[in-house]
Design a protein that fits this description.
Layout lengths: L1 H6 L17 H5 L3 E3 L6 E3 L3 E9 L19 E5 L4 H11 L3 E6 L24 H6 L3 E5 L5 H11 L4 E4 L3 H6 L4 H7 L4 E4 L16 H7 L20 H23 L1 E7 L1 H8 L1 H5 L13 E7 L2 E6 L4 E4 L9 H6 L2 E6 L3 E6 L23 H10 L10
Parallel strand pairs: 4-5, 4-7, 5-6, 7-8, 8-9
Antiparallel strand pairs: 1-2, 3-9, 10-11, 11-12, 13-14
Helix pairs in contact: 3-9, 8-10, 9-10
């Protein structure tokens, strides 16, 4: 059944116990587990691989002539991602000052737009809460890569870009002819970050996957749920884990480019990011119970649908319902949520980065774009700008 689902591009995976995870055929063939520094056990490797370009490009400067700017000011990112993990990684680059161009087309929009709260609205594609939350600080470009004219425009954009990031199965970019060899030939300075679910090689290379798939194969689902009950999906942890690993790897690639003048190819694998989060139960299954509350932890019913978690050491924390998170006084004080004014969806709050940086009071620089919103200005700019060489940026 798994093979048939894979052929139909349906995300699915076996639910492994942590002890079974290292033997998964895909992890074995890709050599995902490596000896620990002590040699006492095997552990998941770092979930990304960086391969420098063989061709030198131009060495960009760290800052422009007009003084301090956000760290990635002057960096252009072509964002060919969809759903949550990829868009969140590109969004973080936008928060840091990069000019992120969200590449979609009217025929092939980011399918996260379809998770809408206004299905009957004429602009229903602009009412997706998840899309709105993961795509702020970007400009929208309508560019159909399946159309020869669209591909010609995209190749011109590649020559002006610093980063290309995508999270499709490997076959997609390969079918478009956008392999690392082709992309780096067009622009030797570019950092190409690829975020496949299972990697660029191995028997599961072309399988689609979401966070729930990752939770199944890494043992997370098997360790979640009621004692004696079935495995339960965490429902989403894999996406932000993959996003932040890919963001970090991209920053490393940009830093390396500043030092050497070479672009690089980055493989940031979603399932391997999840493996690193699940490593404790895989390395030492006795560290977590099969399912249920951890030893020494207790769930307390405070009445009126209120709960708290306490430990034997006297540490207590309330269990906050998702609907109440934005009212949490600590998060309000920390300014995690920032107000957004969207031309269609209106006024709402969305999270920025979970960290603060001096001289940056607000991470969000613009609302998520409507489909193709900035196409005209991007193409006008493309006609007037030179390729990557010599542009300020990291």
């Amino acid at each position: 059944m798994l093979d048939e689902a894979g052929e139909l591009r349906i995300p699915c995976a076996p639910v492994f116990e942590p002890t079974d995870v290292p033997g998964f055929e895909h992890f074995v063939e890709r050599d995902v587990f490596m000896p620990s520094a002590s040699g006492r056990f095997r552990q998941p490797r770092v979930p990304y691989r960086i391969t420098p370009s063989a061709q030198p490009g131009a060495t960009a400067q760290a800052h422009g002539p007009d003084g301090w700017r956000r760290p990635l000011a002057g960096i252009r990112v072509l964002d060919c991602t969809a759903w949550w993990a990829g868009p969140a990684a590109a969004q973080a680059l936008g928060f840091l000052g990069a000019d992120v161009l969200k590449v979609e087309s009217t025929g092939h929009p980011d399918l996260m737009r379809t998770a809408t709260v206004r299905p009957g609205d004429p602009q229903w594609l602009e009412w997706g809460p998840m899309f709105q939350g993961a795509n702020t600080s970007k400009r929208g470009l309508d560019c159909d890569l399946a159309d020869p004219a669209g591909m010609a425009t995209f190749r011109r954009l590649l020559a002006t870009a610093d980063v290309l990031i995508e999270n499709f199965t490997p076959r997609v970019m390969d079918q478009f002819g956008l392999t690392w060899e082709t992309v780096s030939a067009i622009n030797p300075s570019i950092v190409m970050t690829r975020m496949p679910a299972f990697g660029l090689d191995g028997p599961w290379r072309d399988r689609t996957g979401f966070a729930q798939t990752m939770e199944s194969v890494t043992g997370m689902a098997a360790r979640t749920g009621q004692p004696g009950g079935p495995p339960v999906l965490v429902r989403g942890a894999g996406d932000p884990l993959a996003a932040m690993h890919a963001t970090f790897a991209t920053l490393v690639g940009l830093f390396n480019r500043r030092q050497t003048g070479h672009g690089c190819h980055i493989e940031a694998v979603m399932v391997e990011a999840a493996l690193n989060a699940a490593a404790e139960a895989i390395i030492d299954p006795s560290s977590t119970p099969p399912r249920g509350v951890l030893p020494g932890h207790h769930v307390v019913d405070r009445g009126d649908d209120r709960w708290s978690m306490t430990t034997d050491e006297g540490v207590t924390a309330p269990v906050i319902a998702a609907r109440d998170v934005m009212d949490n006084p600590q998060l309000i004080h920390r300014r995690l949520f920032e107000t957004i004014d969207h031309p269609v969806a209106g006024h709402f709050a969305a999270p920025g980065l979970p960290l603060r940086m001096s001289r940056i009071d607000r991470w969000t620089t613009r609302p998520a774009p409507t489909l193709g919103q900035h196409t005209a200005e991007i193409l006008a700019d493309l006609d007037s700008r030179s390729p990557t060489a010599g542009r300020p940026g990291m």
